Amino acid sequence: MRHGTQHADVATAELETALRGGPFHVALRAAIAARGLPLQRVQHHLTRYGVKVGVTSLSYWQQGARRPQRPESLRAVRALEEILQLPEESLIRLLAEADEHPETERPAARSYRSLVEASGALEKLLAELNSPPDGGLHTIGHHERVRIGSRRELLGRDSHHIVRADKDGIDRYVAIHHGDPGCAPDRMTVHALENCRTGRVRWHDGTGVLVAELLFDTRLRTGDTFLFRYDIEDGTAGASSEYVRGFSLSGGQYALQVRFAEDALPVRCHRFTQHSAAAPRIGRQELAVSGHHRSVHMVEPRVRSGIVGIGWDWE
User: Fold this and answer.
1) CATH assignment of 108-313, given 1.10.3470, 1.25.40, 2.60.40, 2.60.290?
2) Residue 144 forms beta bridges with which residues?
3) pLDDT tens per residue, range 158-173
4) How confident is the model at residue 298 (pLDDT cuts 50, 70, 90)?
5) How far apart are CA 60 and CA 54, in angstroms?
6) Confidence of residue 71 (pLDDT cuts 50, 70, 90)
7) Would you give the end-to-end CA distance of the chain in angstroms?
8) Which residues contact 39 (CB under 8 A, 6 or more apart)?
9) Of 10, 37, 72, 226, whose Cβ has the fewest other Cβ atoms within 10 Å?
10) pLDDT digits (tens, 9 = 90+) for 46-56
């Protein structure tokens, strides 16, 4: 009995140390050990909070092989703080403090801290619109056209979606836009272009996140497909150096095209992928700017969960 008490005291001391200094995966592993919960039980508790996370993902998180990054994953981290009886924001704080290292090649504009903060803001905005994380739609195809202006700014983007309903009664899609640092989401404009109309629009000034309802004029049944297109005018920030798109689920085709103003052409462009915002960038491939169209593009025939994007250098 005394041995068990000593073991518990050691586990508690290790947890307190990890919560003070991190890193995140060590603190998570220490918290799970201190509570004596197998990962299957942790997963079961998470489902009671309405959060779905696989045992494999939990294992990766506590090993440091991956980090929670998507809004659903960050909801799980906040739930874990309650399940594991930890101080509020203790795990989230460790994630936010784990800004990227130089070798990951991510610019300060997309630091891990900024993405964590943006995910928290996004969660609140989606809650205002009563929108579930997946929206009940599966993307079959998504073609995105990004426009870069004469001041090297992100002028806006045009998105064309082909979706399939995963349940009955779906009648809208919630678009998410994350502007560059210094942007003013209150000055952005959302245009419904085809087979939809603009509903409620919400934004968060501090992180530059904007969400907008695109309302369909029909209610989809399970298995129904639907095409719609919308545009977001931005142009409110300084020079842009990349455009990224995150995917929470594997699935359909994604095509990204970036078009530059004639008097603002970059010296080089490249595509890249990331398993998560905390992971290093991989799959870097140089892209040549088309002289006539002043654009570059990339196509993912079947996206995987994670991040894809195009970056460019001005000098």
Assistant:
1) 2.60.40
2) 159, 256
3) 999 999 999 999 999 9
4) very high
5) 10
6) confident
7) 67
8) 32, 55, 58, 59
9) 10
10) 988 888 888 88
Q: pTM of the predicted model, to two decimals?
A: 0.66
Distance CA 229, CA 162 (A): 9
Token pair of 190 as six digits: 């959302």
- Taking residue 149's Cβ as centre, other Cβ atoms within 10 Å add up to 17
Separation in Å, CA 8 to CA 4, 12, 29, 31, 296: 6, 6, 14, 12, 57
Q: Which two tokens stand for residue 158?
A: 């045009």
Sheet holding 137-148, edge to edge: 189-194, 225-233, 154-165, 137-148, 253-260, 295-300
| Angstrom distance (rounded) from CA 300 to CA 286 | 15
For the chain, give every residue range classified as CATH 2.60.40.
108-313
Radius of gyration of the chain (CA): 21
The pair of structure tokens assigned to 204 is: 């968060």
Give me 230's structure tokens: 């919308």
- pLDDT tens sequence across 221-263: 999 999 999 999 999 999 999 999 988 777 799 999 999 999 9
Q: For tokens 């009955």, what's the residue?
A: 168
Q: Which position has the token pair 């090993």?
A: 63
